[in-house]
What we know:
Two copies of one chain form a homodimer. Chain A is built from seven helices and no strands.
Amino acid sequence: xxxxxxxxxxxTRGGSLVPAWVKQAxxxxxxxxxxxxxxxxxxxxxxxxxxxxxxxxxxxxxGSGALLAGAAILLAGSALDAVDGAIARANGGGTAFGxxxxxxxxxxxxxxxxxxxxxxLLRFVTDPMLPVLGVMAALAGSFLxxxxxxxxxxxxxxxxxxxxxxxxxxxxxxxxxxxxxxxWLPGLLGAIGLVAILTVVTAIQRIWHVYRSTAAAATAxxxxxxxxxxxxx
Amino acid sequence: xxxxxxxxxxxTRGGSLVPAWVKQAxxxxxxxxxxxxxxxxxxxxxxxxxxxxxxxxxxxxxGSGALLAGAAILLAGSALDAVDGAIARANGGGTAFGxxxxxxxxxxxxxxxxxxxxxxLLRFVTDPMLPVLGVMAALAGSFLxxxxxxxxxxxxxxxxxxxxxxxxxxxxxxxxxxxxxxxWLPGLLGAIGLVAILTVVTAIQRIWHVYRSTAAAATAxxxxxxxxxxxxx
Lengths: 233, 233
C-alpha cells in the first residue's frame, strides 16, 4: 500500500565481490533464501544492515589472527550483496533510501574490513609501519574513488571510469587475506599495496574524467552561444 | 569570454578550519595575495591543488615528529581555503569542476593528514595499536560523513546535519597535534578519539536524516495519491 515501494529507482546497488558467473550460480542457490526472507518480512534494508554486521564479525576474526576464517566469513557475507538486490526487486524495485543506505554501508564495510586488517598487522607483524600506512592509503583511496563518483553524480555527471571498482578491490584484499592465512604474508602486503596504488590512480582518473567532461560541456556551451549570438550564457 | 566562468555555481567550497571572525580578518590580509594571484593568472583550481601540496608537506613534517611545525603549516595552509574561494568569486563564480575538485581534494587532504598522524604514532608511541586504529576510525568516519552528504545530494536531498563537519574536526585534530607537540600526548590521543566518535555519530545522524526525509516524501506522495485518486503514483 505504501507509495515508497512503487517508485522504482535506478538500482545499481553496490557491486558484488564475486565474478558474474559465480553470482548467477549463487543466485540460483539463494532463491529459496530470498523467498524465505520475504516470507518472514525481512526487507532489503535489513539485509543490507545484516551484511554490515557480517563484515564487523569478519574484521574481528581477522584482527584476532584467524585470517582464513575471516576470508570465509567475507565470502559468505558477499552473498548478502546479491540477496538485498533480489529482495528489493521482488518488492517492486528499490527505494532511493535503500540505494543510499546500501552504498553508504558499503563504504562503512570497507573501512571496518581495513580496520581488521590493520589490527592484524599491528598485532602480528614485527615492523607494521609501512603495511599499516599502506592499509590506510588503500582505505583512503577506496573512499576517494567512491566519493568522486558520488560527487560527480551530484553535478550530473557519470564517473564510473577506473581500474579499481569495489568488486575488484575486495577480491584482491580477500585473496591477500587468504594467502596470509595460508602462511604467505607477502601475499597480503602485496594486495594492500596493489589496492592502494589502483585506487589512487582510479581517483585521479575520475578527477581527470570530470575535468574533461565539464570542459567539453563548457566548450559546447560556448559554441552554442557563438552560433546563436546569446551573450548571457 | 569563456562561458564556463560565467555560469555561477552554488559555491559551497569546503569549510575552513578557522572561526568566521578569524576568516574575515584574514581575508583583509589576504586580499593583496588574491590580487597578486589574479595578476599572475593563478586560477582557483591551482590554489586548490596548492592547498593539497601544503597538506602533504604538513603530513611529512608531522610524520617526522615535528608536530608544532606541522600544526603551523596546516594553519597557514588553511588560508588557501579562503583564497581559492575568493579567486573563484573574482573570476565570476566557481565552475562545477572547481566545486568537485575542491571537495574531492578536501577529502584527499584529510586522508593525507591522518596518514601523517599515524606515521608519527607508529614511530614515536610505544604501543601504537589503539591510537592508530583510532586514527583509521577518524579517517573513515570523516569520509563517511562527507560521502553520506554527497550521496544524499545525488538523490536530491540535503544532509548537512551533524556534530562534526570538516571545520570542527580539523580544529580538533590540529589542536591535538599542537598539544602533543607541546609534550602532552594525551591531547592528541583524545582529539583522535573525539573525532572518531563525533564522525561516526554524525554519519549515523545523516543516514537517519535521509531515512526520515525519504520516508516523509513517500508519505506526502501517498497522501497526494489518496487525495487525487491517482493509482499509478
